[in-house]
Amino acid sequence: MMSLPVRNSDVGSRTPRSSTFLTGEWSVGTGVTRLGGRFLSRGRVALGALHWLSWIIVSPRSVVSGGVARELDTLGVGALRLVGSASILVGLIATFQVAYQLKQYGAESVSALAIGWFATREVGPLVVALLVVTRSASAIAGEFAAMTSGGEIDALRVMGLDPVKYLVAPKLAALFVALPALTVIADGFITFGGWVGTTLFLGFNSRFYLEQIRTSLSTSDIATGVAKSLIFGFVIAIIASDEGLSVDRRVTAIGEAASRAVVYCLLGVLAADTLVNAILYFIPALVL
Amino acid sequence: MPSSTSFPPSSSERALEVHHLTGPASAPIIFEIEIFVARGETLLVLGPIQSGKSMLMRHLVGLECAASGTIAVDGEAFDPTKPEDKALRRLRSRVGVLFEGSALLRRISVLENVELPLLEHEHSSRAHARDAARELLAEVGIQVDDDTMPVQLGRAGQRRVALARALALKPRLMLLDEPTLGLDSPAAHEFDETLHAVQKKYDFGIVIFSHEIRHAYTPANQIDVLAGGRIVARGTRESLLRSDDPVIHGLLHRRERE
User: Fold this and answer.
1) Could you tell me if A187 and A225 are in contact, meaning their C-beta atoms sit under 8 angstroms apart?
2) What interface predicted TM-score (ipTM) does this complex get?
């Protein structure tokens, strides 16, 4: 069996995160040092998680794989109702916004074209990622922070078990499956919301709406959205896990880790989205 | 420095040997620690809260980086100032640890908690690991269904499961941090009996880190008194009871006051 070395980073060098970012007690020197440490720590967690993820893929019957199913149920299936209902509302909002803008040019009738394209490429993956951040990032960080302060993480290390393998890799694997799946589902619900708005409030018929959606949707748009959701899943899993695993044993540490995880995951998802959009804009050949 | 009776122990087979341990490297709070435990013997590290007991235990399993000192487990030396991955793995495979509060993984079942080290280190099949886990749990007096979760057990039950998990890799040394903290008197007494029964069977050395004076009245071969991060006294319960040192007096005579 493959085994990742027990890293010396487990020993003593773990720097607990303080809440200075949230409380505003911040100076340039400490900020730069913390930022460096944070990136280093995230990098280590990310490399370890990717390593063990490949191990999960080649050893689907391993003890860790049971954890993936559990996480998939919590992070994916558990988010279905939230994603579904929020996506319908987003579809309605998009319909009204786009129709309002296009009305000025007398082009209200083509709003469904924009909804289909924008939903799959941008709104779908982004809305799903933001919903998963609010629902699960704090839960992941809180869970790991509670495990750290309760001694469970130390217990794993002492048994020679890598917490990244047993805790982070299953969450990453689950998010790699759940986020693209939720994104495709969200695309469907946003389109449904758009249909409700277009037919019920704007007065167009269903056939007209579906025709426009069919014209505007392309496989490459859906694939781009799914690719984005994979990146968002990675960002959420790594940041939330790292925040949870880096706490000290203060009573308030769990809440602080959960808050930090949400803040940094939101920033991380938006930064990743900006980067991907910029790359696709400047290098159009990369569009899937 | 300590008023020693039989220090270091004469046994040829030392489960733990610590010399001049000071740490952690970033900001030392334990200083010049010297402890010895032989296989089959029990050492009680007794000290008030915040005296450095848990920190000492964390050093012994490589969870903290020491400023100086040496540690040997089962005759194999380990440099706590520069813990190498290989040495850490070997060290941890020989040491069973029972953390304060049990530290069971709450999201997996009781049986899975005990199976985990077997599946990881002994590469046992699932069926074999499950049988072994059931046997270990039976040894510590626990019977559970496949899907019993740790939260379904009481505090005493969780402590026993943590003991079974610590026994999984047949350790040479068992470290217990406040093992009976929060247990009522009969449960604590039963836990002590179970611990010494498995010690007799597996012949490992035990180090108990506790502020509870009741451990001094269980068959510990030696008591080290830790205060302010230093071992301030060492001896048997009888020899320490005669001490005039106010810290030792305060700790050991608390039971009588209570």
Assistant:
1) yes
2) 0.85
> Containing H/E element for B232?
strand B230-235
CA–CA gap between residue A105 and residue A196 (Å, rounded): 23
Q: Is residue B23 within 8 Å of B66, Cβ to Cβ?
A: yes
pTM over 0.90: no
Low-confidence ranges of chain A (pLDDT < 50): 1-14
Distance CA A268, CA A275 (A): 10
Which residue of B59, B61, B63 to mutate against A (max A Cβ within 10 Å)? B63
Query: What's the confidence (pLDDT) of residue B215?
Result: 86
Please tell me the predicted confidence (pLDDT) of residue B247.
Answer: 75
Judge: B84–A160 Cβ closer than 8 Å, yes or no: no
B93–A150: do the CB atoms touch at under 8 Å?
Answer: no
CB-CB under 8 Å, B105 with A63:
no
Q: Structural domains in chain B?
A: 14-104+173-257 (3.40.50.300)
Q: CA of B12, closest CA in chain A: separation in Å? A: 27
Amino acid at A134: T
Does an H or E element contain B23, and which?
Answer: strand B14-23
Measured between beta carbons, the chain A residues lying within 8 angstroms of B92 are 6, 157-160
Q: Does A60 touch chain B (CB under 8 A)?
A: no
Q: Largest alpha-carbon pair distance within chain B?
A: 57
Nearest C-alpha in A relative to B24: A12
DSSP string, B76-132: EEE-TTS--HHHHHHHHHHEEEE-TT----TTS-HHHHHHHHHHHHS---HHHHHHH
B63/A10 Cβ within 8 A: yes
Computed over every residue of chain B, the mean pLDDT equals 88
CB contact under 8 A, B97 and A150: no
Residues A94, A119 contacting (CB under 8 angstroms): yes
Run of H or E residues at B255: helix B254-257
pLDDT in tens, A179-197: 999 999 999 999 999 999 9
CA distance A54 to A45: 14
Q: A257 phi and psi, to 5 degrees?
A: -65, -40
Strand partners, B41: none
